[in-house]
User: What shape does this take?
Amino acid sequence: MGNHFGNIFRISTFGESHGPAIGVILDGVPSGIEIDEGKIQLDLSRRRPGQSGITTQRKEEDTVEILSGIFEGKSTGTPISMLIRNKDQKSKDYSHISNKYRPSHADYTYQHKYGVRDYRGGGRSSARETAARVAAGAIAKMYLNQTAGVEFFAYVSQVGTLKLQKSYLDLDLSKSEENDVRCPDPEMAQKMFELIDQTRKDRDTIGGVITGVIKNVPVGLGEPVFDKLHAELGKAMLSINAVKGFEFGSGFEGVKLKGSEHNDEFYEEGGRIRTKTNYSGGIQGGISNGEDIYFNVAFKPVATIMKDQLTVDHSGKETSVEGRGRHDPCVVPRAVPIVEAMAALVIADFDLIRRTNKLRH
Amino acid sequence: MGNHFGNIFRISTFGESHGPAIGVILDGVPSGIEIDEGKIQLDLSRRRPGQSGITTQRKEEDTVEILSGIFEGKSTGTPISMLIRNKDQKSKDYSHISNKYRPSHADYTYQHKYGVRDYRGGGRSSARETAARVAAGAIAKMYLNQTAGVEFFAYVSQVGTLKLQKSYLDLDLSKSEENDVRCPDPEMAQKMFELIDQTRKDRDTIGGVITGVIKNVPVGLGEPVFDKLHAELGKAMLSINAVKGFEFGSGFEGVKLKGSEHNDEFYEEGGRIRTKTNYSGGIQGGISNGEDIYFNVAFKPVATIMKDQLTVDHSGKETSVEGRGRHDPCVVPRAVPIVEAMAALVIADFDLIRRTNKLRH
Amino acid sequence: MGNHFGNIFRISTFGESHGPAIGVILDGVPSGIEIDEGKIQLDLSRRRPGQSGITTQRKEEDTVEILSGIFEGKSTGTPISMLIRNKDQKSKDYSHISNKYRPSHADYTYQHKYGVRDYRGGGRSSARETAARVAAGAIAKMYLNQTAGVEFFAYVSQVGTLKLQKSYLDLDLSKSEENDVRCPDPEMAQKMFELIDQTRKDRDTIGGVITGVIKNVPVGLGEPVFDKLHAELGKAMLSINAVKGFEFGSGFEGVKLKGSEHNDEFYEEGGRIRTKTNYSGGIQGGISNGEDIYFNVAFKPVATIMKDQLTVDHSGKETSVEGRGRHDPCVVPRAVPIVEAMAALVIADFDLIRRTNKLRH
Amino acid sequence: MGNHFGNIFRISTFGESHGPAIGVILDGVPSGIEIDEGKIQLDLSRRRPGQSGITTQRKEEDTVEILSGIFEGKSTGTPISMLIRNKDQKSKDYSHISNKYRPSHADYTYQHKYGVRDYRGGGRSSARETAARVAAGAIAKMYLNQTAGVEFFAYVSQVGTLKLQKSYLDLDLSKSEENDVRCPDPEMAQKMFELIDQTRKDRDTIGGVITGVIKNVPVGLGEPVFDKLHAELGKAMLSINAVKGFEFGSGFEGVKLKGSEHNDEFYEEGGRIRTKTNYSGGIQGGISNGEDIYFNVAFKPVATIMKDQLTVDHSGKETSVEGRGRHDPCVVPRAVPIVEAMAALVIADFDLIRRTNKLRH
Assistant: This one.
């Protein structure tokens, strides 16, 4: 359990941060998709640590190797498997942490659940696993782009208390990649950068919010009742390391409104049914209505700080622990491609399921 | 797709609001659970419309009939199926809405997706379906109570802009059921009641927030990576009609904190590993750590208002529509047992999966 | 586990032989299928005990009630649920068997597995459960008939040592329903009837073989590797009570042939690729090739005989048990509609999955 | 679809015969199993072509690389992934077959289903995929051996018309590995070897039967109704390349018996409930009863013969094709470890599910 995502367009990831490799199998990918390996590599680069002035130290290189499922540049309908080797697996000395539970990490829960854990790092709970998702998401994006022109956007809309007040509609989303913070508002991006830089100097970490936007979504994605489009999208986002909350459309703010304010009136435009407002966030009754899907994802400050913290060891004895190695004061900017990837995987899966909904399709 | 929830402790619901009946099958329920039919009926009564001064009109009676899976008062390990007949299925005249898309309802998306829909009501998208979940959740609670003493609490913590500022730790949660609003703070409950009453008089609706709390959760529930405990919990909540957001532990507020503030230090207490603070919300690395799980669920104002609204018909022609029948100005209070039920289903499922995690268990 | 079948076109059955009702939910049925309730009832009548001169005693009437998923005569895409009430639930005295393990029944394995069982009959292991499958299969047949003209045939080809030597190609399959034995060869049917009648007089039971034939199967059904069409078909048949074996195409006889004899040469006929012989049984590499699918299903003699047999009780003490009530000397004839139903469910499911295989479909 | 097997102890395989590698992910493997890599390698060697005097030519070496899920010699509860690189991927000229449908291969069905196929070999339909299953099965055997002492045996009981008439009870199963044919009766083994050798000289192929035996099976494996133990076992076997039939216990011969002959009487022995005969094949009502499970699997002669055969090309034009490369006159002996592996995967999965069946376990 736990290592699969999706129903038809389905991924299975494997690998630990300190093992030989991580990877992913995509099952159910339709045949005939043109696969551009460069795009997979590009998204992996956007996710990797050490790509910007925000993170310090080690520069991982995540090179993907495709092992199956592609022939003459196109998907064949068989499982696509991709492998990313782990670098820097030098045999360090881990004796200083092998027996300690790092605060707000998964050390204690894994040890209790499985009776054993790979103490050299987060093991399976490490964010390194998300590289496999990003590679898979790149292929989901190719599928959706080639069938329907679906477009995915994500950007940092909050770091600590610095919150972008503008709606995505008032931003030029193409500018997100122009700065290290991945915030499309240059002025706010600069402020966020300074806050993150100060946090780095303080040997601390800070949280943030990513806003996601999906455009050109076909009508009819999502299944009734339990597998509502936004429920699956929410699960996808909440499965990303450090995520604490998800909201779509009007979200938590929407609770303050009256129905008469919140309801999105329908109108007709060029033969297409549209809504005047979009508090629904592009999803009604759990099914896409063709309007933009937009949502927010809350990330806590990550647990690895470069400071001494009190904790206990396996026997319950009090001790202390201090983060070593790479310092990521704010992981939110490099979580942007992960949010895009998970969104693409959800949409691709529902797009395939949609093909089975009507007698003649 | 879409009508199942859970992996081992798994439910399948069926039925439309205006068909003969709705119901649910529970598969994978362990044998030997004592089933108290009265408790199922009690939770159904807490969910049904017309139970309080908030909702007006029709008083549904949801009587459950158990069809299988129980012998001599105990579960047998075979599927438990439960049926709830729909009342009031008089053949009304629906011609005034059969061809119209009600704003922010699922009419348009269902029609587009399936090419057909039951225009007599929400059909499968009706909140009536949640009665089946509540019946199933009651059995999940019995299982968890008999094995581990897990306790579920849910209460209304916000209606419109009226927001309870206290933490669940500072409230007497047993008082939630003492008022129609299901808010454990009597003073705030009164204010909320007045706001809802005014909304009812305005023929409008309003949103709100439900806070959920789960106590005595065994350590080790939840699976790594995609099926994290909070991810599945989030999906469960987002699958409830009208829900727009989910956060757990520190949630959206947590993004403002530094890691050094947010990290939950471990300590030992009576042979058990505990955390001093609980920003993690009882879940670390996607797996329960034994501390309280707490979360918030945002509900939009429901779409059925008693006012005239502009919309289009199937052909795209402009028309108007007005809500008729029962008026539910704020569904949040009666969504409380649904939140509890979904939480119980998630916990029960992960509790069964946990049994398969270790070589010897 | 165990009560679901299928992936997209998916059924869940529930109910015990001596409970109030049995039933089935079909999930994933596409919208727009014309549902003929009479055909469902007809297949149920073909399965029910006491329909012919073979079985003696009680004449059950299995009346189906459709509870959801159909509107104005067509499927809506929501779950179709059907209920069949159990008759004759008089409170008999079961004390003579409540504590005994009937030989070759599921009494012992259920008791050991669950620690509890409904001793009033087979409970969940009773063949009565197959009525729910037959009802679901009738809808699968409607779907396949309306989309592709697929036709399902099944007939009794062996009873005890009486084995029909003719291939299905040399028989008029429409004649199967003309006699109680459901064998399309009238002469053999008469011999089989006599054997069954003698077995009945002997208060014993006897086994047999059902041959299934599926015509007009679309090319491309079945998935590679584990979910091969014949693997799923085999599982479907082996899941029917009393089945001990499954073979398709050349089957167990095919092992005797050389590759040069067994290979089916391709040729072209009217723009369609065909094979000259059909040892493959219409399936190559696990995927349908458009030729007839044919297969055999072996049924053991059922365990309920009207004779005294030695056995043990729950404590392991030696005792004896004798069958009472209805005597079914050969259940094979009335298993014919079950074989058809399971075949239809497999084909319908793969037909939906096929829609997701190619980029453009 | 189609590349996963199992529910909790679950495998996903990937890779084509002429791609860079094949591999497998095992998900749901409990933590704490001691992993002996040598045993995995041993089973792979038993499966590989060219290991004996039967097959001619190329000697593949299948070297497994474990990429994740194991730490300090034990499983950790995270996915175990294994990779086997393909050798001999020299760029041959495939133009002579790229456009032709080889008789009784999957060329036509894959081309029709996906619109594209890897014409350099069987691609995903190649028996090479089974190496991944064998590696996974070796781990399933370790799990079952360490928890319950379950033992798996498989041997060749028929080649062409040469059929071993003895029951497995009258054979010394430990002798199967002492000859190239994997038949535990030395005399019959010699005859089979001669028949296969003649077939090789004739540039032809021949079929056979493998008998499987599972000892020390815990009582209670298998789920009611659809996921009966023998139904899943049958599906597992039918999913192996070239398999045409499956029977367990009394099988196809059992149909000839009377119930009074076929029923297995219970008795008590040393506090354990046993059966005097075992026509049930260790499974009653779909659930293991602790007696030996035994079954037969029929393999057709494989399609690749070294002779010229008539066929058509993609356009339907008549042409001919002749097998080249390695000649495997009878693949049945080297399918023995595949049968064992699939059996072990089925038993391991049900053993985990069993843990979830009772309130207290």
User: Anything to note?
Assistant: Chain D has a mean pLDDT of 94.
